[in-house]
């Protein structure tokens, strides 16, 4: 049994959001405490079909999130360089953070057994307000999630 086999604890609303510091596609460091209202979403890999849909949908809805006072951070295990290419290709208006060892994904319970795909990042979204989790969503649908979530915040 390796460390990937360890059970990952799922988070719940009302809990304090785990802290982190990660670099974005421009090399700037971000933390969840940088903003009062944050939508933090984890995705498995740049340039894959579902992840591409997700960055496009969050980008399309970005103005709506900003109007409600929210910032968005995307997170995946890809490198800063990969994120730069991904953000440039899809004109992402928000930071995309590099979590190369998946430590942050694990701290949010967004990492685990994906069945035939093995262990990896599980597409998950967290709404954080003043450091507290106000919404927790695991195994989200990349097609409609950004739009549907915006209606609930």
Write the layout of secondary structure elements.
Blueprint: E1 22-23, E2 29-30, E3 37-42, H1 49-67, E4 71-76, H2 80-90, E5 96-98, H3 103-107, E6 111-113, E7 119-121, E8 124-129, E9 132-138, H4 145-152
Parallel strand pairs: 3-4, 4-5
Antiparallel strand pairs: 1-2, 3-8, 6-7, 8-9
Q: Explain this structure to me?
A:
The protein is α/β, with parallel strands linked by helices and 153 residues long. The protein has a single domain (36-152), classed as Glutaredoxin. The protein has helices spanning 49-67, 80-90, 103-107, 145-152, and strands at 22-23, 29-30, 37-42, 71-76, 96-98, 111-113, 119-121, 124-129, 132-138. The strands form 3 sheets. The chain has a 5-stranded mixed beta sheet with strand order 5-4-3-8-9. A two-stranded antiparallel ribbon has the order 1-2. It has a two-stranded antiparallel sheet with strand order 6-7. A hairpin with a 5-residue loop joins β1 and β2. α1 runs parallel beside α4 (145-152). The termini are far apart.
């Amino acid at each position: 049994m390796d460390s990937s086999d360890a059970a990952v604890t799922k988070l719940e609303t009302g809990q304090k959001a785990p802290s982190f510091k990660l670099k974005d596609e421009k090399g700037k460091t971000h933390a969840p405490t940088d903003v009062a209202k944050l939508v933090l979403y984890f995705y498995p890999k740049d340039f894959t079909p579902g992840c591409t849909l997700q960055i496009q949908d969050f980008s399309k809805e970005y103005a709506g999130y900003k109007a409600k006072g929210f910032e968005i951070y995307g997170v995946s295990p890809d490198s800063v360089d990969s994120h730069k290419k991904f953000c440039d290709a899809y004109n992402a208006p928000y930071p995309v953070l590099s979590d190369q060892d998946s430590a942050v994904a694990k701290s949010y319970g967004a990492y685990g057994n994906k069945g035939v795909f093995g262990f990896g990042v599980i597409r998950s979204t967290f709404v954080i307000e003043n450091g507290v989790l106000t919404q927790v969503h695991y195994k989200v649908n990349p097609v409609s999630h950004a739009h549907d979530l915006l209606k609930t915040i």
